[in-house]
Write a structure and sequence with these properties.
single chain, alpha/beta, six-stranded parallel sheet, 18 helices, 44% helix, disordered C terminus
Amino acid sequence: MTRVWTDEQWAIIDRSPAPTVIFAAPGSGKTSVLVEHVAMQLVHRRIAPAELMAVTFTRQAALEMRRRLGRDRRVSGSQVESLRIGTFHALLFRWLAKAGVPVSIPLQGDEQRALARKALAREGLHGPRYVRAFLSWMNRMKSVWPPVHPRPAWRGPREMRAFARAGRTYEGAKTRMGRWDFDDIPITFARVLEEHPSLLTRTERLAYLVVDEFQDTNPVEWHVVRALARTYQCPVFVVGDDDQSIYGFRGASPRWLLEFGGVMGADPHWLSTNFRSDAEIVARAERLIGHNRMRMPKRVRPASSDPGSVCAFTAADEDEEAREVAAWLEDLRRRHPSWCFAVMARTRLQLMRAWRVCREKVERVEWRTFHDGKGREWDAVAIVGAVEPNPYLANQPETTAQWEEERRLFYVALTRARHVCAIWTPVRVARQAVRPVRFVHEMGCEPDVGYPCARRGWIKDGRHMH
């Protein structure tokens, strides 16, 4: 069956290679549009397949893009095979190896954590919390361009000085092992491209660069994109959503997407129709994210004419919260046996508290953090532990930039829901007194006392009854 595209989708799909920046709302079909755009370049022979490189941010996304193109009868198998599709790290690693640049096998996660533990132990720092914080810090240090090398004399709090010394120990151990970590790949590629570009240009041609999820780009990757465009004089097509930039811990920022048009001379396009969520979810989400300053103003329209539901409840503590979530899930499942459900939280520890109570009462529910819920969708979503300060966060947001990233994370969680989103704000979390996170008020919700479905019939056919 032939798919029917909207005018704004078709304007992007049928576009010839040119500098382009797409701002894509949640549920706007950006992946389908991107894949169809690539297919059209091949169908109309605008670009030789081997000269088109499509960058994704996960291996799963790359496999899905290749799978979709492989099912397109207008595109030959040899064309799909010739395309370079993959993550930044995978594509750049293969390119370096093909060019004859000495490369090293990247450490796997367990190996990296083991090296970090040993380096930290020399500084008297023990435990998984320090390992996670150290690796996140190292990731940020190596996400900038030019790279920042940790030095023992680096000034800062005692823990940061210890991290700097551990960083030298960690890098020295990697060198002795003859190994890289994944952050070394784009840094090495950027250096080679800057100092010896002919090593790369003689092995690969590039006529069109397509980058998905551009809001997740960090400074090194942004440098690589600009350097490739300059070296090959090729147009770059990027798509993303500045409102869903949620990987600040690895140096990502919506800044590069917002600046792309001016820096690269790109034409802006919008995918502004949300085909996923009902009207109230879209309206509440738009009201919430409007409080951020670092963003492109946009108006998102729901394709659905159904109202849907967004509501908030308070509970005495996490145990009561979990029992109410279980009752909410059971009630909705009875009414909608075909629906899929998710429980989401800011951290894994919060999810575990709810899961221990709910697992015996409800089945077929996905449990996701805000980060790993990105790119997914469910008919109904429960958000638990929506409080501040959040005792489960190692570092509480303080600056405007940190609060804006937290707001984007909450926006991502909210827009995973198709029909219903319920938010819980316990009064006590981890034995600490807390208050509802400010986002609940910003989106126009005020927490009700307890889950009222069983006694007040707030849901009828899965919709909120005002």
